[in-house]
Amino acid sequence: MPVLERRPPWRHTLIALSVPNYRLFAFSHLIAMTAIWIQRVSQDWLVLQLSGNVAAVGITVAMQFAPMLLFGMLGGLIVDRFPKRTLLMVTQAVSALLSAGLAVLALTGTIQVWHIWVIALASGFVTVVDNPARQVFVSEVVGHRHLTNAISLNASIFQLGGLIGPAVSGALLLSVGAGWSFAINAAACLVVVTVLLCLRTSDLLPAPAVQRARGQLKEALVYVLAKPEILWTLVMVGVLAVFAFTMPVLLAAFADDVFHTGAGGYGLYNSVLAAGALVGAIASTRRASLRLRTVLIAAGLFALLQALGGLMPVEFAFCLALFAIGVLNLLFITGANALVQLSSNPSIRGRVMSLYILLLLGGQAIGGPVMGWIVQAYGAHVGMIISGTVPALAAVAIGLILRRSRRRTALLVDPAAVRG
């Protein structure tokens, strides 16, 4: 799918920021993503410390993402029917309350693992609506022309938050504990609500609301099945989500059991991964076109490198592998996100993106406990090797299926050309 006629000049690397509303949104997004990373690292480490069990971290991941697995398509339908800006203000306000609750429990010393699981589950229900709404709202802020650049910038901002957040979280964990990490995220959610209120609504480009009708979820599934660019991208996203995107489980195990670096090491590994991802996200702004083949190649290389990361014998080599994994991870995820959005009609985009998020987050709900069990039973190295090998094989299998499909299509159109 051609996006630009030629590779954009370097001065257009941040072209989406020329849109005033997007500048405000990007500012709030940076604050929110930094705070989310602070809370995520603190939450996972606190679960590990309270339980002494890596598998418990996997259960935390599952509780957070399970609602998306079960109700993700319903969330997309809500996004297609209601104003995205309003939905985001509601979801961010609820998120602020949940993070504040975690902060109170942690700061008073009464927090238990089951408290974290319950709030993680509640946060997961908020994500059912928040995540697809956030994805689709970007297109309303910047329009179709700068959508690809905005998607890449959003990924860059997310990873910049991932670069800052874990380092701050590690310092907070060592100095004052996890409670203040949760309080920071609660405040950040309120900042997002304030920024959304300040956007100039006259400059937004809202998609027409979809009227209530029967069979709208089935309509989205049929639409996806009919478009190979969307279908096979979603399949690859799902496989990677189950196996490769369970990094909290893997990195917690490497920090606790392999290199014995504790909370500081866990924050460091997340920061190194995010630094690589930031480079990958910035590189993705230089894309002149998007093709399914390019997305699949990025997925296969990312998965293969993650499998090799499990073989690293020393911490320095492991960190180098994490940096490279971060680069390829973001080249894949920004390409997949943009390809799915640009291949979708605006009237159905909310439901299609909810399916994308369902697979991305719901897959982690399945993969978290599975990888936690594998790591607990066989060790962190074996877990990481498996987390990369399975998706790499899936990418090869999808490539072979598409190649055979193209040859069959060419044979039907021109048998002589195929024989030649």
Automatic annotation (TrEMBL):
Q: Which chain positions lie within coiled-coil regions?
A: none
Q: Which domain of life is it from?
A: Bacteria
> Which PANTHER family has this protein been placed in?
INTEGRAL MEMBRANE EFFLUX PROTEIN-RELATED, STAPHYLOFERRIN A TRANSPORTER
Mind telling me which residue stretches traverse the membrane in this protein? 21-38, 50-74, 86-107, 113-130, 151-174, 180-199, 230-254, 266-283, 295-314, 320-340, 352-375, 381-402
Membrane protein topology class: Multi-pass membrane protein
Recorded hits in Pfam families, A to Z, give:
MFS_3
Alphabetically sorted, this entry's keywords are:
Cell membrane, Membrane, Transmembrane, Transmembrane helix, Transport
Q: Which InterPro entries match?
A: MFS_dom (IPR020846), MFS_trans_sf (IPR036259), TM_effector (IPR010290)
**Main localization, broad class:** membrane
Q: Which SUPFAM superfamilies match?
A: MFS general substrate transporter (SSF103473)
Which Gene Ontology cellular-component terms appear in the entry?
Answer: plasma membrane
Official protein name in the record: MFS transporter
An example of a GO molecular function for this protein is: transmembrane transporter activity
Q: Where does this one sit in the cell?
A: Cell membrane
Q: Where is the Major facilitator superfamily (MFS) profile domain?
A: 14-406
